Amino acid sequence: MNEIIPMEIINQKIFLIRREKVMFDVDLAKLYGVETKHLIQAVKRNINRFPLDFMFQLSDEEFLNLRSQNVTSSWGGRRYPPYVFTEHGVAMLSSVLKSERAVKVNITIMRAFIQLRKMVSNYSELFRKVEAMEKKYDTQFKVVFDVIKSLIETPPPKEKRKIGFCREKEK
Predict the structure, then answer these.
(1) Architecture of domain 7-120 in this structure
(2) What pLDDT score does 75 carry?
(3) By three-state DSSP, how is residue 21 classified?
(4) What's the pTM?
């Protein structure tokens, strides 16, 4: 695959916010090779293509939390909450940004989302298998542990002493 941007870079730009896998406007703008304000302008000119399940703006609280994690100066940096785009919103961006680069970047981003979905699916399947094994082996090991406990709790039989006279050789 001849991708314009390595998949690893894109995977690092996908975040979980409000239980949605999203990408920030600033990251998408860099990937597309445009300024963030131009990306937002293009979106706002076509706002009917971006319902809330495609794109949303972070709340003030989410934005403050984000700023505190990224330590920005009081006079620099972003002054308004960023927009984030879900997988469907990113797909819609290719129809709004009509450059060859936007199309190629979008293809790579869509592949990253698909890869992420496969990984989550594989993880869920693995989790189910581990749970099934735990249940199966818990019952099997319970039997083993019960036997061990019974052996510990009951003292071994004492060796009986012989009664009577014994010669030296017999001892």
Answers:
(1) Roll (3.10)
(2) 47
(3) strand
(4) 0.61
